[in-house]
Amino acid sequence: MSTFLYKLGKSAYDKPWQFLIAWIVILGIVGTLIGVNGIHSSSEMKIAGTESQKVLDQLTKELPEASGGQASIAFTVPDGERLDTPERLALIQKAIEDVYNVEYVINPAKLAAEAGFSASDASQMGATAPQSAQGTETNQASPAEMPPYGPLMVNGVPVPGVLLSSDGALALFQFQFTVQQASLPKSVPDAVIDAAMAAEQNNSGITTIPSDTLKSTPAIGSTEAIGILVAAVVLIITLGSVVAAGLPLLTAIFGVAISIGGAFAFSKFIAINDITPILAVMIGLAVGIDYSLFIVNRQRRMILDQGLSAREAAGRAVGTAGSAVFFAGLTVIIALFGMLVIGIEFLSTMAIVAGITVFVTVLLALTLLPALLGFVGERICSPKARTKASSSDPKAKQGFSIRWAKGTVKYRWLIIIGVIIVLGTAAIPVTKMELGIPSGASANLDTTARQSYDAISKGFGEGFNGPLLLVGEPQNASDKFTPEKLGSLVQELQKHENVSLVSLIGVNKTGDMAIVSLIPKTGPTDLATKDLVNDLRAADSSIAKNLDMKLGVTGFTAINIDMSSKLAEAFPLYVGIIVILSIIILLLVFRSIIVPIKATVGFILSILATFGLTTAVYQWGWMHSLFGFDTGGPLLSFMPILVTGILYGLAMDYQVFLVSSMRESYVHGHRGTESVVHGYDLASRIVLAAAVIMVSVFAGFIFAPDAMIKQIGFALAAGILIDAFIVRMTLVPAVMAVFGDKAWWLPKWLDRLLPNLDVEGDKLISALNAQDNSSVKKKTNKPA
């Protein structure tokens, strides 16, 4: 491997224009495909096979009108005023009519009229969801106590789909689309909002607040550039040259452009979630900068320490550090592709795009980077740096790293126990971690999503922010729904202690499926709402038994509940798969039993502490003002799987770069703790710089507008901070010192079976040294 990469690196160095043009052509092809196919992305995150998705698919087939997404708009006035004045009622009614006239929005009055119902019937059917064309007369249950709201009346006629709070200060307009929000053209939500905002004209005093399902928040903002700026500063400090520092940045940006562009180029044929490209940008920038940094730094060290030419040093750097980059990248790709076995489509797409990004980044580091080094030539090291290297004392170059390594070796047991206690304490909040999808309840106070959520909760109850859609079917397939049976269904549902309001939407054409909208008393992310969904679905529930029917539950809230449960079930399987595969890779790289196991145990400590801190910050709200949000809430349901995969791969990067140096020292004759200290000295400075860069890049996303990106950015930044600085650079040398030379023990039978990958490049260096000695000998023996 190292010999092949050495030749590849020298070839790219010698023919830089060929390699550069080849990559530019690839980028051009990607751009052309984007121009032909366009860019397509969606916010949809569905999991096939879940109960809610099955019900939704069934509705799409049997009653398409009832399967679309739901949205709401709140109309408010200042405290002490009412909305139901003649002037304001006229404006609200006009705005609602205009919304109903927007394409893809279902008008319950129109559907009811087509089915032969009156306007009054239509309003009742549309109170929480629109009436289907095949509807039947509504049977509305009467709670024991009248709720603090009622229909909005205009000239004695209810306005379809609108409820008015008891104090008259808030009107809630709930409506439904013919398709899910993810399938709506971008112009539809904007047209709905524009139509509703007309109620604010003529100084009416009305404030229009759209729900979060109508207003899209940009996924990223301007703070990400800060992370890139910090990375640039660290590169300049580490490499001592603006030219040298620019190469890793250029390579990383090139890799992100090709990878993300490639994903968008095929987005017409493959569903791309909105988060997918952002995730690929995070990973591509981080690993792209780090991988190139390792190679450029190795080249510079060979030039400054060994006096090699830039050309020869570039080839050797690609052959040695490039080998470590290749296997580090392979570990990240394995960790990402491990998500495919879970069988969740949107996660698989994220994993594939992110994995391809890492693959492209590795290829660029091994081909484009040496080509760029060929353009730079000997200027990669300034005359000042060469003079300083030749005049400085080699023993003083890495003084701090040697002192740190010796300290961890000397106090190894104290450090091991201390790290376990610190990370174990940080992991405690994991036991209380709740998963879900961030909603308006956890949005910042100055956003319309939060203002809409709070207004609706105050005027009607939190449950109105997350209605459930129920499908009832008789146990006997030959039975049909009668008005009496429909009334019994609504009344039976209304008896549940956590049900606020039940409205009948209608039945399908064959009369054997009833569709009902149900408003819980608790919010979309409350545990009580999850219990309600489970109660409704249970085959042995009192509702199912009393009515002799089976109930299906769907809707955005139910979909999120099912998604969280599915991902929680898949998490242990996923962790097991990536751990086993990665241990095999590390076994091949280090030819040791203890090192891979130690690396895995260290990662487990890291990931538990990471999720503990993420729970404390984003769920409990600790230090929320520091991280730019107002209210805590459940953690993103797919965040644990996503972050575990990415962090495992990246943690093993640092494991490979740091411990391979220790193994290199061991192979070259250093024994016991001496190999640990010497190897740590060789790699720690560059691992430290790489970790700072990666933390900076990920931390830049913490202040992104999107709540999901915030959580992912924080978890990745915290995870790298913990794993790189506490585990790899502190715990690892302490544990290696405990085992000493036994850390490299490998059974002889296994040693014979495993191929020698020569990650450290020993065979390459030996061959090159032999070649150099042979050349010197020939010159010496040449007759005068």
TrEMBL record:
Main location group: membrane
Membrane topology designation: Multi-pass membrane protein
Chain segments carrying region Disordered: 123-147
Subcellular locations according to the entry: Cell membrane
Presence of the UniProt keyword Metal-binding in the record: no
Gene3D superfamilies linked: Multidrug efflux transporter AcrB transmembrane domain
Location of the SSD domain: 229-375
Keywords on record: Cell membrane, Membrane, Transmembrane, Transmembrane helix
A Pfam short name: MMPL
Comp. bias intervals (Polar residues): 123-142
Transmembrane segments: 20-39, 225-258, 278-296, 317-344, 350-376, 411-430, 571-590, 602-621, 641-661, 682-704, 716-739
InterPro entries in UniProt: MMPL_dom, Mycobact_MmpL, SSD
GO cellular component terms attached to this protein's record: plasma membrane
Protein name per UniProt: Membrane protein
Source species of the chain: Paenibacillus radicis
